[in-house]
Specification:
The complex is a heterotrimer of chains A (about 500), B (about 150) and C (about 325).
Chain A (H helix, E strand, L loop, with lengths): L1 H7 L5 H19 L5 H12 L4 H26 L8 H40 L1 H9 L3 H17 L5 H15 L2 E2 L6 E2 L12 H19 L17 H6 L5 H16 L5 H15 L11 H25 L5 H12 L6 H5 L2 H27 L2 H4 L3 H20 L2 H19 L5 H26 L3 H6 L2 H39 L1
Antiparallel strand pairs in A: 1-2
Helix pairs in contact in A: 1-16, 2-4, 2-16, 3-4, 3-14, 4-5, 4-13, 4-14, 4-16, 5-11, 5-13, 5-16, 6-13, 7-8, 7-12, 7-20, 7-22, 8-20, 9-18, 9-19, 9-20, 11-12, 11-13, 12-13, 18-19
Chain B lengths: L2 H22 L6 H27 L14 H21 L1 H16 L6 H25 L11
Chain C lengths: L1 H20 L9 E5 L6 H10 L12 E5 L6 H9 L7 E7 L1 H8 L9 E10 L1 E6 L7 H10 L5 E4 L5 H13 L4 E4 L3 H9 L5 E5 H5 L5 E6 L27 E8 L4 H15 L2 H9 L4 E4 L1 H19 L6
Parallel strand pairs in C: 1-2, 1-3, 6-7, 6-8
Antiparallel strand pairs in C: 3-10, 4-10, 4-11, 5-8, 5-9
Helix pairs in contact in C: 2-10, 4-11
Classes of the chains: A mainly alpha (about 500), B mainly alpha (about 150), C alpha/beta (about 325).
C-alpha cells in the first residue's frame, strides 16, 4: 500500500498524465462502439507502446482496459447493444430505463458503479495479492468446470419467463460454440461450410446476436420516428442518483466479491461476472419481477462487478504471469515486450514501473468516471438520433468491428447469419442472452471437463476428481442452489401467469 | 396468426434445429470430440419434447388486441442491402461500400419526403461518418481494412 | 485535328513506357505479416519485435504491419494464406515449425511444407521438461523410473495438440520406452499454471517462458542437440542417454506463399537476416527472454525439409486415414 502511495506522484509527469487522460477517453469510446471490445482495444494499442517507455505504455493500456469495460454501458443503455461482452447484463435493465426517459440516470449509475467496482478491484490488487494469488492457483480443470456450470445455471434466470425457450437457446449456444475444430482433440465438428473452419468467435457472435436484431427492429420502426419522444437533458439528477447508492449497498458488496473472485480465476473475465452478479442479485432481491423493466439495481450489479474484475485480473498476471481474463492476456504481451517479467522481480527490480502502474490504475478509475459522467450528461443527443441513421451506422460499425477481431470476412458472414437467425428467434419469443451465455461458457465447460477427465483417469478416477475438494463442493452447492432457486422462481411465475390467464378467461367467458 | 399457431411453428423450428445438428454429427471416431455436442443435442431434443407436451396440455392463449401490420418489405430491403454490402466489401473496398450502403439504404426506406435537400444532407452525413471511420481505423490505428480496387 | 490525336497518342504511349520503366522497386507500400496466433502470445510479440526496424532504408524501406489470423492452432491462418492470400509479395507469413508440418501430416489442411517459400528464421525455442518446485521427481532418471513403474499415470502437459511440446512428449515416450499421458492445454501460460499448482505432474514448455519462472519450477532437461546459453546448467536429453533431437524445437520465421514474384523473394531473403540481427532487435529479444537464432534462406529451407523428414517418421502412427 505504502509503495503505491509513494509512486502516486509519478503520475504527475506529463507523459503519464497524458496517457491516463487519453487512455480513459479512448477507452470509453472504444468500449462504447459496438464491435470493439476491451480486448481488441488493448491489442490494437500494444504495438504503439513499443515506442513509449514502459511505465507510460502500461498506464495507457491499463486505463484503456478499465475505461473500455465501463464504456460498454453506453451503447448497452442507449441503443440496447452491448458495447462489450461485459455489458450484456447492463443492457437488461439499462435500456428499459433509457426508454422510460431515465437514460441519463442509468449512465450515471453505470459510471459511478464502475468507479466503485474498479477501485475495489485495484484495492484487492494492492492489499490482497498474496492470498488471492494463492487462491487463484487452486483452480484447476475441475473447479473451472463447476464455475462454468454455475454460470450456466444463470441461464434459467435470464429467460425472462420463457424457461424452456431460454434453456433451448442456452443449449443451442453451447452447441454453436462447438462448431470448428475441437480445441482438445483437433477434430473438425459441424464445419458444413468453409467460413466456419475457425469456429464462431465470441465477439462476432455477440455482435450478431444483439446488434443485428436491433438493427432490423430499427428498420421496422422507422416510421415511428414522428411519434418518438424528444429526450432532454435533466439538471440536478446527479446527486440524488448517487445518494441512492446507499440503499444499494448490499448489491454493491456482492458485486465486488463476485467480480473480484471471477476476475482472478484464469480464463473467465468481465463477461461472465456481470451476468452472474445480475442473476444472483435478482434471486436475492425482494422484488425480482422489477428486474428487466428498468430497475437501477440491475445496472449497479452488472457495472460494479465487471469493473471489479479489471483490478483482480491483474493479480495472477503480475505475480505469476497468468492472465485472469482475455484482456489481461494481451496485457501480458505488452509487459513482456518491455522486458517486464511477471513475478517477484516485477515488485523489486522494476518496482518503480509496477507501483506507478498500479497507482495509475487506481487514478484511472476516477478519470474513467469523470469522462463517463460528462458523456452521460449529453447522452440524450444519441437517444434523439433517428432510427434510420442509427440503423445504418450500427450495421457499418458491426461489420468493421467483427472484421477487426480476426481480420476475417468469414466472421462477418457468420455474424450476419447468426443475427438473422436470432431475429427470427426473437420474433418467436426466444430470449437472446441465454444463447450468448451458452456460446461463452460452452468452450470453458467442455475443455475443462475433457481435460479434467484426462488427468483424472491417470490419477484418482473421474468421480473423485470432480466431486471432492473444498472448492469443488462449494461450487457444486452454489450451482445446485442457483438452479433450484431459478427453476422455482420460473415455476412460480409460470403458474401465476396461468392463473391470471384463467381468471381473465373466466371473467370474459 | 394466433398464439397457438405461432407456438407450433416455433416447435417446428426447434425440430429443424435438432435435425440440422443431428445430420452434421461427426462419425464416432474419437469419443471425446462427440461427447459434448452429443450431450447438448440430447438436451435440445429433450427440451423440444417438453415444449411440445407443454403446448398440448397448456395451450398458449391469444393476448388479444390489434397489432400494427409488420413492415415486411422494409425489413427485407434492409436484409438484402446488408447482404449486398457484405458481398461487395472485398472487391470494392470497405469505405466505398460503407458509404454506398449508408446512403442508398437510408434513402430507400425512409418515410419522410425525399427532397433533393434531404438527400444532399444525407450524402454529407454518409461521407462524414465514413471519413471519420477512415481517420480512426486506417490513419490512427493502422488497422488493415479490406481495400478492394478503390478504398 | 489529326495532329492533335497523334500527339495525344504519343503522350499516352510515352507515359505508359515511362511508368513501366519507372515501376517502383519492391517494396513500394507497407507489407503485411500474417501471424496465425492471438495478439500477446509468444509468436505474436516476437514477430512484432523482429519486424520493428523494417521501415529503415537498409532493410525493407517500408513498415511491416502485423495482421493476426488466429484459429485451430494456426491452421486457420495458414489455410487462408494458401487459399485466399495475395501472391504479390506484400503478404509475408510467419511460420512455426513443427506446427506447420505436424498439422499438414495429421490433419487435412490446404497446405504442406511445399506450399511455402522459406525466407529467413528468427527464433528457435526449444522445449524443456518442467516439474513443480516441490515435485519428488528431481531428475530425468527419477522421471523415467516413475513412468516405467506407473505406465500411463504420469501426466505431461503442453500448449496444444501436435505442437512442439506434444512432439517432445512423443519422442520421450519412444526414447525411454515409457507411456505418458499428454494433456493439451489452451496455451503456454495455461500450461504453466497447471504445472505450478500441481494439477499435472509435469510439462513440456517453451524455454523462453520456463527460464523466467525458475522460482516456481524445476527444469529437468532440454529437448535439443546442445545446451542453451540461457540455461547453461540444464542437460540435454541426449547427454542423459535419451535419443531426442531437435524435432520439437519451435522455429519461427518469415516465409512467402509459393508463387510470389522472384523480386520480392530475393529482396526479403536479402534483408530479413540482417534485420533480425539488428542490435535493437537482439536486445529486445533478450530482454523478453526469447531465444534468437537467425538463419538465412538456404539454411531455413534446409531446416524446413529436415524437420519435415523427422516429423513424418515420428508422426506416421498418428496419420488420420
Amino acid at each position: 500500500m505504502l509503495e503505491t502511495l509513494q509512486h502516486l506522484g509519478n503520475l504527475l509527469n506529463i507523459p503519464n498524465f497524458i496517457a491516463l487522460l487519453l487512455g480513459s477517453i479512448g477507452g470509453i469510446f472504444f468500449g462504447a462502439m459496438p464491435g470493439l471490445s476491451p480486448t481488441m482495444a488493448v491489442a490494437l494499442l500494444v504495438p504503439f507502446t513499443f515506442y513509449m517507455n514502459a511505465t507510460t505504455g502500461l498506464i495507457l493500456l491499463g486505463s484503456v482496459y478499465t475505461s473500455a469495460v465501463a464504456g460498454g454501458a453506453i451503447t448497452a443503455v442507449l441503443i440496447n447493444i452491448p458495447g462489450a461482452p461485459a455489458s450484456i447484463a447492463t443492457m437488461l435493465d439499462g435500456h428499459p430505463m433509457a426508454k422510460k426517459g431515465e437514460g441519463q440516470q442509468a449512465l450515471y449509475i453505470a459510471f459511478v458503479g464502475s468507479l466503485i467496482g474498479g477501485v475495489c478491484g485495484v484495492l484487492a490488487l494492492i492489499l490482497l495479492t498474496p492470498p488471492l494469488a494463492a487462491f487463484a492457483m487452486r483452480f484447476g480443470p475441475s473447479e473451472l468446470f463447476w464455475v462454468s456450470v454455475f454460470g450456466i445455471t444463470v441461464i434459467a434466470g435470464l429467460s425472462d419467463g420463457r424457461l424452456i425457450k431460454g434453456l433451448f437457446g442456452g443449449v443451442l449456444g453451447m452447441l454453436i460454440s462447438c462448431i470448428g475444430y475441437s480445441p482438445m482433440l483437433g477434430e473438425p465438428r459441424f464445419v458444413f461450410h468453409d467460413t466456419l473452419t475457425s469456429g464462431i468467435a465470441m465477439v462476432p457472435a455477440l455482435i450478431g446476436l444483439f446488434a443485428i436484431p436491433q438493427v432490423l427492429d430499427l428498420a421496422a420502426e422507422v416510421h415511428l420516428q414522428v411519434k418518438k419522444n424528444k429526450y432532454t437533458p435533466k439538471k440536478g439528477v446527479f446527486w440524488p442518483t448517487v445518494r441512492r447508492f446507499r440503499e444499494w449497498w448490499k448489491t454493491t458488496v456482492l458485486a465486488n466479491i463476485i467480480g473480484i473472485i471471477i476476475g482472478i480465476i484464469p480464463g473467465a473475465g468481465g463477461q461472465v461476472a456481470g451476468l452472474i452478479t445480475y442473476d444472483q442479485t435478482r434471486k436475492l432481491s425482494k422484488h425480482p419481477e422489477s428486474f428487466g423493466t428498468g430497475d437501477p439495481e440491475g445496472v449497479v450489479a452488472s457495472e460494479v462487478s465487471n469493473n471489479a474484475t479489471v483490478g483482480a485480473a491483474l493479480i495472477p498476471l503480475l505475480t505469476l504471469g497468468i492472465p485472469g481474463s482475455p484482456t489481461a492476456a494481451v496485457l501480458l504481451g505488452g509487459l513482456l515486450i518491455h522486458g517486464l517479467f511477471p513475478g517477484p522481480e516485477l515488485f523489486s527490480k522494476h518496482a518503480d514501473v509496477t507501483y506507478t502502474f498500479i497507482a495509475g490504475m487506481l487514478v484511472a478509475q476516477f478519470f474513467m468516471c469523470g469522462v463517463g459522467l460528462l458523456f452521460a450528461r449529453f447522452s440524450h443527443a444519441i437517444m434523439n438520433i433517428s432510427n434510420l441513421i442509427m440503423m445504418a451506422s450500427v450495421v457499418i460499425l458491426a461489420v468493421i468491428g467483427t472484421y477487426c477481431v480476426q481480420n476475417s470476412m468469414d466472421d462477418v458472414i457468420v455474424m450476419f447469419a447468426l443475427g438473422l437467425l436470432m431475429y427470427l428467434g426473437i420474433k418467436a419469443e426466444f430470449p437472446s442472452a441465454p444463447v450468448v451465455l451458452g456460446v461463452i461458457l460452452g468452450p470453458i465447460a467442455e475443455e475443462s471437463f475433457l481435460r479434467g477427465k484426462m488427468i483424472a483417469e491417470t490419477d484418482v478416477g473421474v468421480f473423485q476428481y470432480f466431486f471432492t475438494g473444498g472448492i469443488n463442493l462449494l461450487l457444486i452447492a452454489l450451482s445446485v442452489g442457483s438452479l433450484a432457486w431459478g427453476l422455482y422462481g420460473e415455476y412460480a411465475r409460470y403458474t401465476k401467469r396461468q392463473r391470471a390467464e384463467a381468471a381473465c378467461h373466466a371473467t370474459t367467458a | 396468426m394466433n398464439a397457438a399457431k405461432k407456438e407450433w411453428l416455433c416447435i417446428a423450428g426447434m425440430l429443424v434445429v435438432n435435425a440440422f445438428f443431428y445430420f452434421q454429427l461427426p462419425e464416432r471416431s474419437e469419443a471425446g470430440a462427440s461427447l459434448f455436442p452429443g450431450l447438448m443435442m440430447l438436451l435440445l431434443l429433450g427440451l423440444t419434447a417438453v415444449k411440445t407436451v407443454s403446448q398440448l396440455r397448456f395451450p398458449k392463449a391469444d393476448s388479444g388486441g390489434t397489432k400494427e401490420p409488420f413492415p415486411l418489405a422494409r425489413v427485407l430491403v434492409v436484409v438484402v442491402a446488408v447482404i449486398i454490402y457484405i458481398a461487395i466489401i472485398e472487391p470494392v473496398g470497405f469505405y466505398i461500400s460503407s458509404f454506398l450502403f449508408f446512403l442508398l439504404t437510408t434513402v430507400a426506406i425512409q418515410t419522410t419526403p425525399r427532397t433533393p435537400r434531404a438527400i444532399a444532407v444525407r450524402f454529407c452525413l454518409a461521407f462524414g461518418f465514413v471519413a471519420f471511420l477512415y481517420a480512426l481505423f486506417t490513419l490512427l490505428l493502422q488497422v488493415q481494412i479490406p481495400k478492394g480496387i478503390l478504398i | 485535328m489529326k495532329k492533335a490525336i497523334l500527339f495525344c497518342l504519343a503522350l499516352v504511349l510515352l507515359s505508359i513506357g515511362g511508368v513501366a520503366l519507372a515501376a517502383p522497386p519492391y517494396p513500394s507500400s507497407p507489407i503485411s505479416l500474417i501471424v496465425v496466433y492471438t495478439p500477446g502470445g509468444a509468436t505474436d510479440f516476437q514477430a512484432r519485435i523482429v519486424s520493428m526496424p523494417a521501415g529503415e532504408e537498409k532493410y525493407f524501406g517500408q513498415p511491416i504491419v502485423i495482421v493476426n489470423k488466429p484459429g485451430a492452432g494456426g491452421m486457420t491462418g495458414w489455410n487462408w494464406c494458401v487459399e485466399k492470400g495475395s501472391k504479390d509479395g506484400y503478404t509475408l507469413v510467419s511460420y512455426n515449425m513443427p506446427h506447420l508440418v505436424a498439422q499438414s501430416i495429421v490433419s487435412k489442411p490446404s497446405f504442406t511444407v511445399d506450399s511455402f517459400e522459406p525466407i529467413a528464421n528468427w527464433g528457435a525455442d526449444p522445449a524443456v521438461l518442467i516439474v513443480p518446485k516441490n515435485s519428488p521427481l528431481k531428475t530425468v532418471k527419477d522421471f523415467v523410473e516413475y513412468a516405467k513403474a506407473n505406465p500411463g499415470k504420469v501426466t505431461v502437459n503442453g500448449a496444444g495438440l501436435y505442437v512442439g511440446h506434444h512432439i517432445a512428449t512423443l519422442q520421450l515416450e519412444k526414447a525411454a520406452g515409457i507411456k505418458l499421458t499428454y494433456i493439451p492445454e489452451k496455451g503456454g501460460t495455461d500450461a504453466f499454471q497447471a504445472v505450478y499448482s500441481n494439477k499435472v505432474m509435469s510439462g513440456f514448455n517453451n524455454l523462453a517462458d520456463a527460464f523466467r519462472n525458475t522460482d516456481n519450477l524445476n527444469i529437468l532437461a532440454i529437448a535439443d542437440t546442445k545446451r542453451h546459453a540461457f540455461l547453461p546448467d540444464v542437460p540435454t536429453f541426449q547427454e542423459l542417454g535419451y535419443d531426442i533431437d531437435d524435432a520439437s524445437v519451435n522455429y519461427r520465421g518469415y516465409c512467402f506463399v509459393k508463387g510470389v514474384p522472384k523480386e520480392a523473394i530475393d529482396k526479403a531473403a536479402a534483408v530479413a537476416p540482417a534485420m533480425f540481427n539488428d542490435p535493437m532487435v537482439v536486445s529486445k529479444m533478450k530482454e523478453s527472454g526469447s531465444p534468437l537464432l537467425v538463419l538465412n534462406r538456404e539454411e531455413t529451407r534446409k531446416m524446413f525439409y529436415s524437420q519435415k523428414a523427422k516429423l513424418e517418421v515420428l508422426l506416421k502412427d498418428l496419420v488420420k486415414k
